[in-house]
From TrEMBL:
InterPro entries xrefs: NAD(P)-bd_dom_sf (IPR036291), Sc_DH/Rdtase_CS (IPR020904), SDR (IPR050259), SDR_fam (IPR002347)
EC number: 1.1.1.100
Top-level EC class as recorded in UniProt: oxidoreductase
Single GO term (MF): 3-oxoacyl-[acyl-carrier-protein] reductase (NADPH) activity
Gene3D superfamilies recorded: NAD(P)-binding Rossmann-like Domain (3.40.50.720)
Record bears the keyword Transcription regulation: no
Annotated keywords: Lipid metabolism, Oxidoreductase, Steroid metabolism
Name of the protein described by the UniProt record: 3-oxoacyl-[acyl-carrier protein] reductase
Length: 246
């Protein structure tokens, strides 16, 4: 049980990649705090699945793009579970369409949820981690943060910001024994990519050297590796999980 005794806070942790990450940590004995912003029923279902495999967790509903909420969430986790050993910043949305058609409200929502939330939660949790002289922060980026994607300019920009944030914060926190890394998934078979037509999916698959879409479990295992002592000398890295596309 690699994470027995560890407390893991995951934003956007009840669906998609976040859910896969939560289940992977649960299998390895971690205690979970799962943040979500809507869909109570799905959140409860995820928590039920975690309990069915012998795990334990709590749900915290709220918008992590709000700094005040993010701070209160971290305080709640520490008060309820005693600490935060690992923070996984996973919450994200995407806006598909031409950049020229985007409005200021689109920019605000994508950057607030995808990037400002990473600032909010990290800023709130590092005070606790620095005091304890240990901690681990893992940010979920995207291959589009490196490559850029047509019709996903805002999403790509937010993920590029996460990459720079990860590298910079890792250098700043290394003397406090806090590691900061990011995972950049490729095209993963989740709801976020459900908008793709059959033809678009086939086109993407043809471009991927491994010849298929990825799944959430494959991303989750890399996150778990970065959170474990197996990667004790790894920090400031953006790990691609994209089937060889980059």
């Amino acid at each position: 049980m690699k994470f027995s005794g560890k407390v893991v806070l995951i934003t956007g942790g009840t669906r998609g990649i976040g859910k896969s990450i939560a289940l992977e940590f649960a299998k390895e004995g971690a205690t979970l705090a799962l943040n979500y912003v809507n869909d109570d029923e799905r959140a409860e279902e995820t928590l039920k699945e975690i309990k069915e495999i012998g795990g334990y967790g709590i749900l915290i509903k709220g918008d992590v793009s709000n700094y005040t909420f993010a701070g209160k969430m971290v305080e709640q986790v520490i008060k309820t579970l005693g600490k935060v050993d690992i923070l996984v910043n996973n919450a994200a949305i995407s806006k598909i369409g031409l950049f020229m058609d985007m409005e200021e409200c689109d920019y605000n929502s994508v950057m607030d949820i995808n990037f400002k939330s990473v600032y909010n939660t990290s800023h709130s949790v590092i005070k606790h981690m620095i005091t304890n002289k240990r901690g681990n922060i893992i940010n979920i980026s995207s291959m589009w943060g490196n490559l850029g994607a047509s019709c996903e300019v805002l999403y790509s920009s937010s993920k590029g910001a996460i990459n720079s944030f990860t590298k910079s914060l890792a250098k700043e926190l290394a003397p406090s024994n806090i590691r900061v890394n990011a995972v950049a998934p490729g095209v993963i078979n989740t709801e976020m990519n459900a908008w793709l037509t059959k033809e678009e999916r086939e086109e993407l698959v043809n471009e991927i050297p491994l010849g298929r879409l990825g799944n959430g479990e494959e991303v989750a295992k890399v996150v778990a590796f970065l959170a474990s002592e197996d990667s004790s000398y790894v920090t400031g890295q953006i790990i691609n999980v994209d089937g060889g596309l980059q």
